[in-house]
Design a protein that fits this description.
170 residues; alpha+beta; PH-domain like; 2 domains; four-stranded mixed beta sheet; 27% strand
Length: 170
Amino acid sequence: MKIEYQFVFDETYYRDHLARAASQRPLFLRPILQGPLLFAMTVFGWFFLNSLGLESLAVAFAVLGAVAFLGVVVTPVSLRYGMLRHYKSSPEFGGETRVALTENGMDLSGMKSSGKADWEAITSGVRHADGIMLSQTGTTVWLPDAALTGSTPTEATEFVRSKVVVRDIS
């Protein structure tokens, strides 16, 4: 059996890729929850220290909390920006890419490069509502359902499940 994908390595693809990768993290590790929790802890700590009469310590705690809060909010944004800049500098950026999933593994081919990965090298898969993300040590490959050619998302998922462990995130 052969499952084929064809898509363009562009900004939309990379934004989707990064969003799907981030959604796999546990909820408490996502900045969307870390920011409000850190803010609430800072406010609670400031009021608690003030109630004990430790105003200078309360101010120091509030400043440290504000710096940590900014780090939680700013770091993901700057990381995404930096990663997107890195992707845009790739010679493959903006070009058409083909991925074939076969009995032997995954074959990737782009404008200027190609590669192969045996199924043993692929450590896991995650089924999202709109595609599959395959993970290897140090990298991931996002395979959107919209890029399938000649197969259905169900066929692709069943094929990948026959090769690696796949968990579902919807």
